[in-house]
């Protein structure tokens, strides 16, 4: 592996060779050099402080998980941003990914355009953008009920469970959820988690 490819490189960490090859082809076709690794341990053994670019990491791999690797990377001098991909998405995993400032959290099979857009954001200097996003408050246009629904969604509770807690129907829960996601500009539940956690981080202490 040459030193040159570590400037604005897409580092792909996935134990599925078909995914590694497909992503390497996708990014090479869009002009991004790539480096591929079959496991988190290989990547962490190889990484150097001068590497630049973005890491795409699967959650479930043999040995160290992508989320565990992300936690280690958060303390590494390279400060490489991470995009988490998974075939087994859940709220808890999204919360952990965004706690360590993931660029994005995408469920397989993911939209290639969305993945490319996430990589391009990272390449344009994401650390500053992430810092700004981390202090962005949740809009005050959310109603009290929408905030209640959002908090329960972030806790991983389904529509029926939320309805039972709030004394409303699952259908009404879905309406509130749809409205709050529209107001927040969240495309999916993973983005809702990111926005909610950013609002908590940006909240001034009492």
Provide an overview of this structure.
With 206 residues, this protein is α/β, with parallel strands linked by helices. It has two domains: 4-134, 3-Layer(aba) Sandwich (Rossmann fold); 144-202, Orthogonal Bundle (Arc Repressor Mutant, subunit A). Helices cover 51% and strands 12% of the residues. The protein has a five-stranded parallel β-sheet, with helices on both faces. Helix 4 crosses helix 10 (189-202), helix 7 packs across helix 10 (189-202) and helix 8 (159-166) crosses helix 9.
CATH topology-level fold name of the largest domain: Rossmann fold
Tally of separate domains: 2
Distance between the termini: 51 Å
Number of helices: 10
Strand order of the largest sheet: 2-1-3-4-5
**Main pleated-sheet profile:** 5 strands, parallel
Proportion of β residues? 5-15%
CATH superfamily of the largest domain: Response regulator
**Overall pLDDT score:** 84
> CATH class of the largest domain, anyone?
Alpha Beta
The residue fraction in helices comes out at 40-55%
Specify Rg, calculated over alpha carbons.
Answer: 18 Å
The topology string of helices and strands comes to EHEHEHEHEHHHHHH
Q: Count every beta strand, where a strand is a DSSP E run of 2 or more residues.
A: 5
Structural class by sheet pairing and helices: alpha/beta
Catalogue the unreliable spans. Answer: 1-6, 127-136, 202-206
Name given to the CATH architecture of the largest domain: 3-Layer(aba) Sandwich
């Amino acid at each position: 592996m040459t030193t040159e490819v570590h400037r604005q490189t897409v580092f792909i960490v996935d134990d599925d060779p078909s995914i590694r090859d497909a992503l390497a082809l996708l990014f090479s076709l869009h002009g991004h050099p790539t480096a591929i690794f079959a496991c988190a341990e290989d990547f962490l053994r190889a990484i150097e402080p001068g590497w630049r670019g973005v890491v795409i990491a699967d959650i479930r791999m043999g040995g160290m998980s992508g989320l565990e690797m992300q936690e280690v990377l958060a303390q590494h001098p390279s400060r490489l941003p991470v995009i988490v991909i998974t075939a087994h998405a859940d709220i808890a995993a999204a919360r952990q990914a965004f706690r360590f400032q993931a660029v994005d959290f995408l469920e397989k099979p993911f939209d290639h355009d969305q993945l490319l857009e996430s990589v391009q954001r990272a390449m344009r200097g994401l650390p500053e953008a992430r810092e700004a996003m981390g202090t962005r408050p949740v809009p005050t246009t959310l109603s009290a009920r929408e905030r209640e629904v959002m908090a329960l969604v972030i806790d991983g509770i389904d529509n029926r469970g939320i309805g039972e807690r709030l004394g409303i129907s699952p259908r009404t829960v879905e309406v509130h959820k749809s409205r709050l996601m529209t107001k927040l500009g969240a495309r999916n539940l993973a983005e809702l988690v990111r926005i909610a956690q950013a609002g908590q981080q940006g909240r001034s202490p009492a």
